[in-house]
Every structure is written in C-alpha cells, then in structure tokens.
Specification:
alpha/beta, globular, 277 residues, seven-stranded mixed β-sheet, Rossmann fold
C-alpha cells in the first residue's frame, strides 16, 4: 500500500472511531511481546512512582514503545515531559542500553523533577528547550526517536507553533528516525478551533507531520478508549489524571461529581508512528 493510501486509510479509520467502530487494543499485543528485556525492566522498575505505574492501564507503556519501534542504543528526545511519566522509563532504558535521553522543556528556566538527577538510576539526563521561539532542539540529524505525548494540542492556539514543532523534530532526527505521537483524539466529531478542549483530529495531526516531510508508517488502537464521549464540561482535563472541576484558572469546585468521569478513565488517544525518510 502506498503512503497516500495509508494516510487515507488512517483518516477513514479515525472517522470510524466511535465506540462501535473502534479496533481492539489487541493490535498492540504482538508488539508488546517483542519488547526487549531492558524495556521490560524499565517499565517494571520499583524506582517508578506509584502514581505513574497506576496509569499504565491507560497508557500501555510497553505496548506503545514497542509499537513505535524503540530500540536499544537509541538517542531519545522527549518533548515536554511534564512530571516525568515517560522519563522514568526512557532515561533508565537509555542508560541500560548505552543510548541517550534528552528532555525538551518549555523554557530555559523550567527544570525536571529533582529525582532525575540521580545518575545511578537515570544516567545523564540532558535538557534542551522547545517553544515558539526556541532554536534547534539538538544537533541536526543526531536523534533516533522523538516522543511527543499529549502535547500537540497545547500549541494549536499559537499561530505557526505546531508547524515549527514538526520542522524542529524533523531536523533533529536522523534519516530513518522515528517520531512517536500519542494525542487525545477528537474523532469522530470535528476538532474544536485551536483544539481548545485538548482533543485533536487525526487528519490534522497527520497533515502537520506530513507538512514537515514525515511519512506515516503505522497507527494503532493501543491507547483507544471507547468509553470517552469527548463532551466533558472542562474538556479532556475533566478526566483523570487532571480531574478539573472548574474552568481553568478558577478554584476547584468541591461539589463537582467526578464519578462519571472517573469511570471513563483517561482519554481516547491516537497512537501514530512517523518516520523521517
């Protein structure tokens, strides 16, 4: 199947993303079985925080990283790692496999949680900066694997920033390098302007990556959640783990009933693998 046909197939699949149409998450099971021992050890490590391991039922780290094609010895770049869910896995994995881990933070003044300075566990964790005005993320063509996990929506309201992001990722990757994307999925309903509720259209994500030169290699339903109705009062942030109970910037509402949203769990997400030719 040609690249355009694959792209159209993915777009069609995203349209049929309603609960009755969703493919089984078993599509990631085979990839999970191929996960290398170092990855399994990193995911199962007792050094991971209980708060993060509790989220594995929604985030499927072994299955997702295996699907994306993470391999020993890769130079890994994670974009906006936040509290470090993926850092807890990727940094030890890079250390164990003689690879490297680089975190792109939102500003030069931002820092990772202090625990990631423990070189005995995490190795040498380096940082760089990505925002709408940042310079190159890394030496051109130096990275093997770029992970963008649930952050693309943050840039959709800033003109030109999503396109800059894709260009920066493309420049940082070596030929054959992988761009791994996990993103809250709006389909089958239309995406709201600026992805204001956190959900994005699969077709928009694919178009952004294609526009920078990436080729769509594969898509998976590993992180699909058919229970997510995507019509929550405070957008995707109504769901766990954020559990927002009032408009952004306002104090939490102690009377807000979280039960319905906790029962949904974390969001329905697209899981896409792009490759730099």
């Amino acid at each position: 199947m040609g690249f355009r046909a694959v792209t159209l197939a993915i777009a069609f699949a995203s349209i049929c993303a309603a609960p009755a149409c969703l493919a089984s998450p078993q599509s990631g099971a085979k990839a999970a079985g191929n996960a290398d021992a170092a990855l399994a050890a990193s995911v199962d490590s007792p050094t991971r925080s209980p708060q993060n391991t509790a989220r594995d039922i929604y985030r499927h780290p072994k299955e997702s990283l295996s699907f994306w094609g993470l391999k020993p010895g890769m130079a890994i770049l994670e974009i906006w790692p936040g509290g470090g869910y993926w850092t807890e896995i990727l940094a030890p994995y890079a250390k164990a496999t003689t690879g490297s881990y680089l975190a792109a933070l939102g500003s030069a003044t931002q820092t990772l949680p202090t625990k990631f300075s423990e070189t005995a566990v995490y190795g040498s964790v380096a940082t760089t900066v990505f925002n709408e005005k940042s310079p190159a993320l890394a030496k051109p063509g130096s990275m093997s694997f770029v992970l963008l996990s649930r952050n693309l929506h943050d840039w959709m309201s800033t003109q030109g920033e999503p396109e800059k992001a894709m260009r920066d990722f493309y420049a940082a990757l070596k030929p054959g390098g992988i761009l791994a994307i996990e993103q809250h999925r709006a389909d089958p309903r239309p995406m709201k302007p600026g992805a204001s509720d956190g959900y994005m259209s699969t077709a928009v994500v694919v178009k952004l990556a294609e526009g920078a030169g990436f080729k769509l290699a594969a898509a998976s339903e590993i992180n699909a959640n058919p229970k997510d109705t995507k019509d929550h009062p405070f957008g995707v942030w109504t769901l766990p783990p954020t559990r927002r109970s009032a408009p952004n910037g306002q104090p939490p509402n102690p009377n807000f009933d979280h039960a319905k949203y906790d029962a949904i769990g974390e969001s329905d997400r697209m899981t896409l693998k792009f490759v730099k030719p």
